[in-house]
Amino acid sequence: MLKVLPSDLADLARTDAFNALVWYDLEGVDTFVEAATVVAQGGDPGSWRALARENFDRDLGPIFRPPVRVADGTALLKRIPSVWGRLFDFGVPKTEEASSRRVIVRVTGFEGASLSIRNIMVGTFEGMLAPTTSGLSVRILAGEASFARDFEVEFGW
Predict the structure, then answer these.
(1) Quick one: which of 13, 73, 117, 128 could link to 113 by a disulfide (CB 3.0–4.6 Å)?
(2) What pTM does this model have?
(3) How far, in Å, CA of 48 to CA of 31, rounded?
């Protein structure tokens, strides 16, 4: 994978210097994820969705989930805008309750994100909701392509 990364990112990967406490710009993260998509994920950007969902508890659970266990998927999704800014410096998320058991998450200003990054986002949201909702359905309504400006996902249970 180091061969397909720009030299500065290859140096970070070689020395295991990536740090979860450091903000990386979207272009750098996207370059790294795209290289990993080609090398480690067999070129399938959709595989990131399952990987993000399966690893949510270990990586992001403590950040997204409140200290008190919330059993309501709608309440968890409403936390996305406040948590987003702690993780990313791109995109502006908003949640809209479409019904008592359906929530739409819209992310504007997301045009710099590739399809791989978008799949990581959806997998992260699925991982966040998995323990609290049964019969979770996820439907991407808009932006299911690399570098589309807006990204819109509907969650229902």
Answers:
(1) 117
(2) 0.78
(3) 14
The C-alpha atoms of residue 87 and residue 47 are separated, in whole angstroms, by 22
As a whole number of angstroms, the distance between CA 77 and CA 90 comes to 18
DSSP states of 111-129: TT--HHHHHHHHHHHHHHH
Kindly report the CATH number that applies to the domain delimited by 45-156.
Answer: 3.90.1520.10
CA distance 154 to 35: 29
3 state SS of 157 = coil
Q: Contact at 8 Å (CB) between 128 and 153?
A: no
CA 65 to chain centre: 15
Q: How far apart are CA 44 and CA 30, in angstroms?
A: 14
Model confidence pLDDT, tens digit, residues 121-142: 999 899 988 887 888 999 999 9
* Cβ 95 vs Cβ 104: under 8 Å: yes
Q: pLDDT for 44-91, tens place per residue?
A: 889 999 989 988 888 788 777 766 666 688 888 888 898 888 777 788
